[in-house]
Amino acid sequence: MDGTLIDTEPYWMAAEIELVEAHGGVWTPEDAVALIGSSMPVAARHFQERGVDLTVEEIAHALNSSVRAAVEAGIPWRPGAQEVLRALHDAGVPQALVTSSFAVVASPFVDAVGLFDVVVTGDVVERHKPHPEPYLTAARHLGVDVTACVALEDSRAGLASAVASGARVVAVDSHVALQPPPDVSRTSSLAHVDLATFARVAAGEVLDLRVLG
Fold this sequence. Notes:
GO molecular function: hydrolase activity
Structural class: alpha/beta
Order of helices and strands: HHHHHEHEHEHEEHE
Largest sheet: 4 strands, parallel
Keywords: Hydrolase
CATH class of the largest domain: Alpha Beta
Protein name: HAD-superfamily hydrolase, subfamily IA, variant 3
InterPro entries: HAD-like_sf, HAD-SF_hydro_IA, HAD_2, HAD_sf, PGP-like_dom2
Organism: Cellulomonas flavigena (strain ATCC 482 / DSM 20109 / BCRC 11376 / JCM 18109 / NBRC 3775 / NCIMB 8073 / NRS 134)
CATH superfamily of the largest domain: HAD superfamily/HAD-like
CATH topology of the largest domain: Rossmann fold
Shape: globular
Strand order of the largest sheet: 3-4-5-6
Strand content: 5-15%
Protein backbone atom coordinates (compact mmCIF):
# COMPACT_ATOMS: atom_id res chain seq x y z
CA MET A 1 0.00 0.00 0.00
CA ASP A 2 2.38 2.70 1.28
CA GLY A 3 4.59 3.87 -1.55
CA THR A 4 3.33 1.27 -4.04
CA LEU A 5 -0.31 2.28 -4.47
CA ILE A 6 -0.52 5.52 -2.51
CA ASP A 7 2.15 8.08 -1.68
CA THR A 8 1.85 7.99 2.09
CA GLU A 9 5.58 7.86 2.75
CA PRO A 10 5.73 11.66 3.25
CA TYR A 11 2.96 11.27 5.86
CA TRP A 12 4.94 8.61 7.71
CA MET A 13 8.13 10.66 7.52
CA ALA A 14 6.44 13.76 8.92
CA ALA A 15 4.83 11.76 11.74
CA GLU A 16 8.15 10.10 12.62
CA ILE A 17 10.08 13.39 12.72
CA GLU A 18 7.39 15.01 14.88
CA LEU A 19 7.37 12.05 17.28
CA VAL A 20 11.14 11.85 17.76
CA GLU A 21 11.62 15.62 18.05
CA ALA A 22 8.85 15.80 20.64
CA HIS A 23 11.03 13.55 22.81
CA GLY A 24 14.18 15.59 22.27
CA GLY A 25 15.71 13.38 19.60
CA VAL A 26 16.75 13.90 16.00
CA TRP A 27 15.16 12.06 13.06
CA THR A 28 16.18 12.95 9.54
CA PRO A 29 14.50 12.25 6.19
CA GLU A 30 17.35 9.81 5.54
CA ASP A 31 16.46 7.93 8.72
CA ALA A 32 12.86 7.77 7.55
CA VAL A 33 13.80 6.43 4.11
CA ALA A 34 15.89 3.70 5.73
CA LEU A 35 12.79 2.46 7.59
CA ILE A 36 10.48 2.25 4.55
CA GLY A 37 8.76 -1.13 4.54
CA SER A 38 9.72 -1.98 8.13
CA SER A 39 7.21 -3.46 10.54
CA MET A 40 6.00 -1.33 13.43
CA PRO A 41 7.92 -3.30 16.11
CA VAL A 42 11.16 -2.86 14.15
CA ALA A 43 10.50 0.84 13.57
CA ALA A 44 9.56 1.39 17.22
CA ARG A 45 12.91 0.05 18.40
CA HIS A 46 14.68 2.67 16.26
CA PHE A 47 12.55 5.44 17.73
CA GLN A 48 13.21 4.24 21.26
CA GLU A 49 16.94 4.29 20.55
CA ARG A 50 16.54 7.96 19.54
CA GLY A 51 14.97 8.87 22.87
CA VAL A 52 11.27 8.18 22.38
CA ASP A 53 10.24 7.04 25.86
CA LEU A 54 7.08 5.21 24.82
CA THR A 55 6.04 1.58 24.45
CA VAL A 56 5.72 -0.03 21.03
CA GLU A 57 1.94 0.21 21.37
CA GLU A 58 2.08 3.92 22.22
CA ILE A 59 4.43 4.63 19.30
CA ALA A 60 2.16 2.68 16.96
CA HIS A 61 -0.88 4.62 18.14
CA ALA A 62 0.80 8.00 17.66
CA LEU A 63 2.07 7.25 14.16
CA ASN A 64 -1.03 5.40 12.99
CA SER A 65 -3.34 8.17 14.19
CA SER A 66 -1.35 10.80 12.32
CA VAL A 67 -1.16 8.87 9.05
CA ARG A 68 -4.79 7.72 9.21
CA ALA A 69 -5.95 11.32 9.52
CA ALA A 70 -3.89 12.27 6.48
CA VAL A 71 -5.27 9.37 4.40
CA GLU A 72 -8.83 10.18 5.41
CA ALA A 73 -8.32 13.71 4.11
CA GLY A 74 -7.66 12.38 0.60
CA ILE A 75 -6.03 9.41 -1.10
CA PRO A 76 -2.66 10.39 -2.62
CA TRP A 77 -2.59 7.88 -5.49
CA ARG A 78 0.71 6.89 -7.08
CA PRO A 79 0.72 7.32 -10.89
CA GLY A 80 -1.12 4.45 -12.58
CA ALA A 81 -2.11 2.69 -9.36
CA GLN A 82 -5.83 3.44 -9.44
CA GLU A 83 -6.04 2.45 -13.09
CA VAL A 84 -4.23 -0.85 -12.44
CA LEU A 85 -6.55 -1.81 -9.57
CA ARG A 86 -9.65 -0.97 -11.60
CA ALA A 87 -8.44 -2.86 -14.69
CA LEU A 88 -7.69 -5.98 -12.62
CA HIS A 89 -11.07 -5.79 -10.90
CA ASP A 90 -12.92 -5.33 -14.18
CA ALA A 91 -11.07 -8.33 -15.62
CA GLY A 92 -12.19 -10.50 -12.69
CA VAL A 93 -8.72 -10.88 -11.17
CA PRO A 94 -8.86 -11.36 -7.36
CA GLN A 95 -6.75 -8.84 -5.45
CA ALA A 96 -5.17 -8.81 -2.01
CA LEU A 97 -3.72 -5.82 -0.22
CA VAL A 98 -0.64 -6.93 1.75
CA THR A 99 0.69 -4.11 3.90
CA SER A 100 2.89 -3.63 6.95
CA SER A 101 0.57 -0.81 8.02
CA PHE A 102 -1.95 -1.63 10.71
CA ALA A 103 -5.66 -1.93 9.93
CA VAL A 104 -6.36 1.45 11.50
CA VAL A 105 -4.31 3.08 8.72
CA ALA A 106 -5.27 0.75 5.89
CA SER A 107 -9.04 0.76 6.51
CA PRO A 108 -9.80 4.28 5.17
CA PHE A 109 -7.99 3.39 1.94
CA VAL A 110 -9.56 -0.07 1.69
CA ASP A 111 -13.05 1.27 2.33
CA ALA A 112 -12.69 4.09 -0.19
CA VAL A 113 -11.28 1.85 -2.94
CA GLY A 114 -13.61 -1.12 -2.43
CA LEU A 115 -11.70 -3.38 -4.84
CA PHE A 116 -9.78 -5.75 -2.56
CA ASP A 117 -10.98 -9.30 -1.99
CA VAL A 118 -8.51 -9.87 0.86
CA VAL A 119 -6.64 -7.49 3.17
CA VAL A 120 -3.61 -8.56 5.22
CA THR A 121 -2.29 -5.84 7.54
CA GLY A 122 0.73 -5.76 9.81
CA ASP A 123 -1.32 -6.39 12.94
CA VAL A 124 -2.84 -9.70 11.77
CA VAL A 125 0.38 -11.65 11.13
CA GLU A 126 2.92 -12.97 13.61
CA ARG A 127 5.93 -12.60 11.32
CA HIS A 128 6.19 -9.41 9.32
CA LYS A 129 7.92 -8.56 6.08
CA PRO A 130 10.63 -9.57 5.08
CA HIS A 131 9.20 -12.93 6.25
CA PRO A 132 6.91 -14.47 3.60
CA GLU A 133 3.99 -14.98 6.02
CA PRO A 134 2.03 -11.88 4.88
CA TYR A 135 1.99 -12.99 1.23
CA LEU A 136 1.39 -16.64 2.06
CA THR A 137 -1.54 -15.55 4.25
CA ALA A 138 -3.00 -13.48 1.42
CA ALA A 139 -2.74 -16.32 -1.09
CA ARG A 140 -4.37 -18.72 1.37
CA HIS A 141 -7.30 -16.38 1.93
CA LEU A 142 -7.64 -15.86 -1.83
CA GLY A 143 -7.76 -19.63 -2.21
CA VAL A 144 -4.93 -19.75 -4.74
CA ASP A 145 -1.41 -21.10 -4.95
CA VAL A 146 1.00 -18.28 -4.16
CA THR A 147 3.10 -19.23 -7.21
CA ALA A 148 0.14 -18.18 -9.38
CA CYS A 149 0.17 -14.69 -7.83
CA VAL A 150 1.88 -11.50 -8.98
CA ALA A 151 3.07 -9.20 -6.20
CA LEU A 152 3.88 -5.51 -6.51
CA GLU A 153 6.44 -4.17 -4.03
CA ASP A 154 8.32 -0.93 -3.52
CA SER A 155 10.41 -1.63 -0.37
CA ARG A 156 13.36 -3.90 0.35
CA ALA A 157 11.54 -5.73 3.15
CA GLY A 158 8.42 -6.14 1.02
CA LEU A 159 10.42 -7.35 -1.95
CA ALA A 160 12.18 -9.95 0.18
CA SER A 161 8.82 -11.09 1.60
CA ALA A 162 7.18 -11.46 -1.80
CA VAL A 163 10.16 -13.26 -3.35
CA ALA A 164 10.44 -15.66 -0.39
CA SER A 165 6.74 -16.51 -0.66
CA GLY A 166 7.21 -17.90 -4.17
CA ALA A 167 5.04 -15.32 -5.92
CA ARG A 168 6.02 -13.67 -9.19
CA VAL A 169 7.17 -10.18 -8.29
CA VAL A 170 7.31 -6.74 -9.89
CA ALA A 171 9.62 -4.34 -8.05
CA VAL A 172 8.40 -0.74 -8.21
CA ASP A 173 11.13 1.87 -7.78
CA SER A 174 9.47 4.77 -5.95
CA HIS A 175 11.08 6.28 -2.85
CA VAL A 176 13.76 3.58 -2.73
CA ALA A 177 15.80 2.28 -5.67
CA LEU A 178 15.55 -1.49 -5.32
CA GLN A 179 18.09 -4.08 -6.37
CA PRO A 180 15.85 -7.10 -7.08
CA PRO A 181 17.08 -10.60 -7.91
CA PRO A 182 17.53 -11.41 -11.62
CA ASP A 183 14.18 -13.25 -11.82
CA VAL A 184 12.16 -10.24 -10.59
CA SER A 185 10.52 -7.81 -12.99
CA ARG A 186 10.97 -4.10 -12.50
CA THR A 187 9.21 -0.82 -13.29
CA SER A 188 9.73 2.82 -12.45
CA SER A 189 5.98 3.42 -12.19
CA LEU A 190 2.68 1.56 -12.24
CA ALA A 191 1.78 3.85 -15.12
CA HIS A 192 3.83 1.45 -17.25
CA VAL A 193 1.93 -1.64 -16.05
CA ASP A 194 -1.28 -3.03 -17.58
CA LEU A 195 -3.20 -6.31 -17.79
CA ALA A 196 -0.84 -7.63 -20.44
CA THR A 197 2.06 -6.98 -18.08
CA PHE A 198 0.47 -9.08 -15.35
CA ALA A 199 -0.25 -11.90 -17.79
CA ARG A 200 3.35 -11.94 -19.03
CA VAL A 201 4.82 -11.84 -15.52
CA ALA A 202 2.42 -14.54 -14.32
CA ALA A 203 3.56 -16.68 -17.24
CA GLY A 204 7.17 -16.40 -16.10
CA GLU A 205 8.55 -13.51 -18.15
CA VAL A 206 10.94 -11.11 -16.45
CA LEU A 207 10.31 -7.55 -17.64
CA ASP A 208 12.18 -4.28 -17.23
CA LEU A 209 9.66 -1.47 -17.69
CA ARG A 210 11.72 1.30 -16.17
CA VAL A 211 11.91 4.66 -17.89
CA LEU A 212 15.42 5.90 -17.19
CA GLY A 213 17.06 9.24 -17.68
